[in-house]
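Annual report, structural modelling task.

Input specification for the FE2/S2 (inorganic) cluster complex:
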Amino acid sequence: MTTVDGVPLDAAPRPGQCLRTYLREHGHQAVKRGCDAGDCGACTVLVDGAAVHSCLYPAVRASGAIVTTAAGLPEGPDDPRPRFAAAAGFQCGFCTAGLVTTAAAAPAQVADPQERARALQGNLCRCTGYRAIADALDRHTTTAAGPVGASSPAPATERIVRGSEPFTFDGEAPPGTAHLVVVRSPHAHARITRIDTEAAEALPGVLAVLTHSDSPDVLFSTARHESRLDDPDDTRVLDDVVRFHGQRVAAVVGADLAAAEAGARAVVVEYEPLPPVLDVETARDAPPIHGEKTGSRIADPARNVVAALHQGVGSIAAGIAEARAAGGAVVTGTWRTGRVSPASLETHGSRAWVDDTGRLVVRTSTQVPFLVRDELARVLGRAPASVRVTTGRVGGGFGSKQEMLTEDLTALAALYTGRPVQWELTRTESLTATPTRHPMRVTATVAARPDGTLTALGIDLLSDAGAYGNHSPGVMFHGCHESMALYRCANKRVDAEAVYTTTPPSGAFRGYGLGQVQFAIESALDDLARELGLDPFELRRRVVVRPGDPFVASADPTEHPDDLAFGSYGLPECLDLAQAALARDGDPAPTGPTWRVGEGMASTMIATIPPRGHRAQAVVALEAGRYRVRVGTAEFGNGTATVHTQIAATALGARPDQVELHGGDTDAVDVDTGAFGSTGTVVAGTAVARAAEALATELRGKTAARLGVAPADCTLGPDGVTAVDGRRIDLADLAGARGEGAHGGSPRSVAFNVHAVRVAVDTATGEIRVLRSVHAADAGVVVNPQQCRGQVEGGVAQGIGTALYEEIRLDDAGRVTTRVLRDYHLPQFADVPRTEVLFADTVDTLGPFGAKSMSESPYNPVAPAIANAIRDAVGVRPRRLPMTRDRVWALCRHAAAVCDASDPPGDVTSAHGPARLV
Ligand code: FES
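The model returned the following structure:
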C-alpha cells in the first residue's frame, strides 16, 4: 500500500507501471505528463520526502512509501505554493506543480540564488523565462488584484499552485474511454502498398485498426485560420503516401493503452519507397511531392512550391547605385535559421466521444476551438452544430496549437468504434512529428547614403515547408511583411518561396516568420551601421517608419491597401530606453586572455492582429450578484483569462473576483477565431470590453428608471449602482441584465520591440555568457504589468533558446535524431539570464483601454541582437542559428584566420562567407 497525500492507496500497480501513470490513474492530477524520460520535471513528487521524477520511478517501489504531490505539500513557512501565487510564478502552469514540489524538497537550496539552478535543473518551464519563478523563490510579491493597469493574479492561481486546475487530460474521462496509438512511417517518402491488420485486430483489447481505407477522402490543412482558404488543402486524416519519417500510417484503438501499443506493434505495413526530397535548396527541381493536388491552393505543385511572393517597389539596382554614388555603403549576406520546436510542456492531444444527444464532443489542447470545430465538421461530413469542441486549461501553445494535429483522428476513431477515444502524444512524437519553426535561408541586401538613409532593401528567401504546407504561406507572407515595412526605403524587393521537402512539417510558432527574416535584415543593418560609422541605435532611428508613413513591405500601398495603422507609436522611446539600459551595469565580464566582450541590438515591428479577419464575441451577464463572462478564447498561458477578467471588471466598476470567466468552448458564444497572433487581448479583449460596456449601460439605465434619475448620474461599483444622490441598487437586485459585444479585428495597429545585449565570448571554447539583457516593448497601455513582463521574459527566453541552443536535427534519411528533450536542449533555469523589461509610455487608439498585443513579438529581436553582439565581440559575423558553442568556436577560429583562404568557415557562415561589401 502507498500513502498519497495522506490517504492510503491500496490498488496494486500494473507490472512495469511507472509511478506517474499509477498516480494519475487514481486521480492524482497534480502529477503531470510532460515527457517520459525524466527531463521536464512536470511529474515531480516526493517519495518519503525526496523529490523524484515519477515517470522514471517504478510504482511498485513506492509500496509502503509516503508519496506527496503538489496537492498535499505541508503548509508552513517552507511551503512554496503561496510564494508562486504571490509572484505569479507561472503562465500556462503545466510545470508549476512539479516545480513547487521540487522547491518544497529543497527549501534551503532554492532560497540560495547560487544553489537554486542546480536544485531546479530537472524542472523545465517553457513559458516564463524563469524570472517569475526566481521571484517566487525570493519571496517577491508582484501581484495585486485590481482593474486594468494592476498586476492582478490569474483567476486560477490557487488551483495552479496546488495542481488542481484541470488541463486537457485531467478530470475523469468518459466511461469506457479507449486509447489510440499511431503506427508511423519509417520512410521519408513512400507509397503504402499493403497494410495487414489481422494480427493486430486479433490481439486482446484491440478494438479497431484504422488505415487510409477508413479515412474520409477529404483534403484539408492542419493549419487553422479564420478563412480556411488561407492554407493549402494537402493533407488527409490517413494517406496512402507518406511524406516524412514519422507520418501517421495507421491508428490502433485499444481498450487500454497497453493493448493499443501491442496492436500498433503487430500491424504489418509494406511500402514502395519514393524519392526522398531532403534538401530544400534543390527541392524545386526534385520530383513533385504533392504534384497531383491541383486546385489545393498550392502555388506550383510541379516545382514543390507551396507559396511564392515576387514583388517590389522601385529598383534595388537603382538604390545600390544611389548609395555608391553618394559614398555610402552596400551590404549583402545570407543567413540561415534552424528547426525549432515549440515544445509546449503539455503535448498535443484530445479526447472525443458522442454525447447523449448524438453530438460529437472533442476536448482538446488547442488555441482555436471554433476553427477546429468547423474543420472537423467539414472533414467528417457533419454539420458544425453537431460538433462541440472544448478545452481545459491548455499547457502552452506558442502557435503550435493553432493546428488540428490530433482531433481529426481521435474523432474519426470515436465515430468508428462508438467508444470515447483519447490520444495523447508522447514527447518523442511531439519532437519528431509535430510542426517546427520554418527553417529559412534569407539573403538580405541593404544600401544607404552616408547619413544612413536607406536606398535599397531586398530579401531573397527560401522557406522549408516540410512535408505539408499548413502555415507556410502565412508564415512566409507575415515574415516578409512587417520585417520590410518597418523601414523607410524607396526601393524594396521581396523574392520568397516556401518549398515542400519530405521532412517533418514546419508550422506556426511565436513570431510567425518574423524572427527568421529579422535575423537577416537586422544583422545586415548592423554591418551597414559599421560601414557608415553610425551607432546601431542611431541608424535605426534614422531608418524606421514614422507616423504618417505608409506601410510598404514590397508592394505599392495605393495599389494594395492595407488596414494597418499607427494606433500609437513607441518605437523611438523603446530605442532610447534600451540604449540607456544597456549602458547601465551588467554582470562583470569574465577575465582571461581568450574572452571578448561585445554589444548588440535589434528592433522589430509586428501588427497587433493578423490580416484578413479575426473575430471574437463576448457575452457578460449579471447573475446572483456576480458577473459571468462568456468568451471563446482558451487560456494557454497567454494570460487572456486574467486580462479579460480585468477588462470586464474595469468596465463594470467591479473587483476582479466578482467576475467569472467561461471560455474555451464552442458552446460559449457564436464565433471566436481563437488566440493567436497575440489577439487574445486586442480582439477578444475588445469584445469583452464592448459586452461589459453594454451591460454597464443597461445597468445604469435600469437603475435610472427605478430611481428616477438620468443614466449618466449613475455609477457602477462593486456593491451596486449608485445614483448621484447616494441611493443605490444592489447588484443582486439587477440580476438578469446582460450585454453582448463583438470585434472584427480591423483596423490593426502596430507594436514594437527593441532588444539589446552585452555578451562575453570565450574564443577558445565558443562559450557565450549574456552579461546584460534589456528589452523595451511598446505595448500601449499595459493591462497587467506583471503578466505582460512575464510574456516578454518568456519570449526573450525562447529567443535565447533559438539563438544559442535549440535545433531539431535530422539524419541523412530525414529521421529526427533529437527525440527526447535532453538531446534538444530546451533552456533550463541556469541558461536564461535576467532581462530588464521596460515599457514605452503609449496609449493605443485602436486597442481596448489603449492596449496593444505583446505575446509573440518579444521573441523576434533576440537572436539578431545576440548575433550582433557576438559580431561585435569577435569580429566575424554569425550567419546560422542556433549559434551553438561548437559553431561559435569555429567562428572564432575563422576570425583568427580570416585572411587565410585555406581556412574556410564551415557552417558558421553561408556560402557567401562573411558579410562583404559590394
Ligand atoms: Fe511553465 Fe508553462 S508555465 S511550462
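The first helix runs from residue 19 to 25.
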